[in-house]
Amino acid sequence: PGVPQVYMTLSKNGPKEKLCREYKTTESSTTVNNLVILEKRGNEQTQLNCIETLKSDRKGQFSVECELPGNSGKKVQFESSVIATDNKNYAILQTCPKTESSIVTEDIVVLQTNEEGVEEGVTNYFTSQGWSLDTWHSRKKVKC
Q1: Per-position b or e across 64-86, b if 16+ CB within 10 A of its CB
Q2: Fewer CB in 10 Å around end: N or C, the chain?
Q3: CA–CA separation, 49 vs 8, rounded Å?
Q4: pLDDT at 1
Q5: Cβ(9)–Cβ(94) below 8 Å
Q6: Contact by Cβ (8 Å): 108, 125
Q7: Strand intervals (E) in 1-144
Q8: What homologous superfamily does CATH list for 5-141?
Q9: Are 94 and 80 in contact (CB under 8 A)?
Q10: What's the pLDDT tens digit per position in 108-131?
């Protein structure tokens, strides 16, 4: 949100394949963004076109709806909350997909403008939470 292009660099719960995602955002209003999620693996690329809506009653929380590729008309929805950001180089998000089953696939992910490395603010936040970078899925360990 607010940053045009970011890369998913860390994920607490995985799967590691989602670390090959790039997020491109264009603002269409003050409360709604168009969001394109690109997942690249080798020569293959999957694109999800999404609408990201800011929840008016909760600062830093978004509802996201994405259309699945293939013109099936199927959509995936998830809630996203910003838990830490510098509003420039990184954001740490908690995401909760809305699934038809009762399986919860909540995750915490790090999005950065730099594809490689870890922003100092991210490292500082991890330290403050008692989290270790070594236990998280990392983009640098995945072949995208």
Answers
A1: bebbeeeeeeeeeebbbbbebbe
A2: C
A3: 17
A4: 46
A5: no
A6: no
A7: 5-11, 21-27, 32-41, 44-54, 61-67, 75-85, 90-98, 107-112, 137-138
A8: Calycin beta-barrel core domain (2.40.128.20)
A9: yes
A10: 999 999 999 999 999 999 999 999
Q: Could you tell me how many residues make up the chain?
A: 144
Secondary structure (3-state) at 102 = coil
Torsion of CA 47, 105, 75, 81, to 10 degrees: -80
Half-sphere exposure of 68 (CA within 13 A, CB side): 7
> Dihedral through CA 138, CA 141, CA 142, CA 144, nearest 10?
100
What is the C-alpha separation between 60 and 52, in angstroms, rounded? Answer: 12
C-beta neighbour count of 6 within 10 angstroms? 22
Answer yes or no: is pLDDT of 31 > 80.
no
Q: Give the residue from 127, 55, 41 showing the smallest Cα distance to 92.
A: 127
Q: Is residue 90 pLDDT above 90, yes or no?
A: yes
Domain ranges for the chain: 5-141
Count of C-beta atoms within a 10 Å radius of residue 91: 26
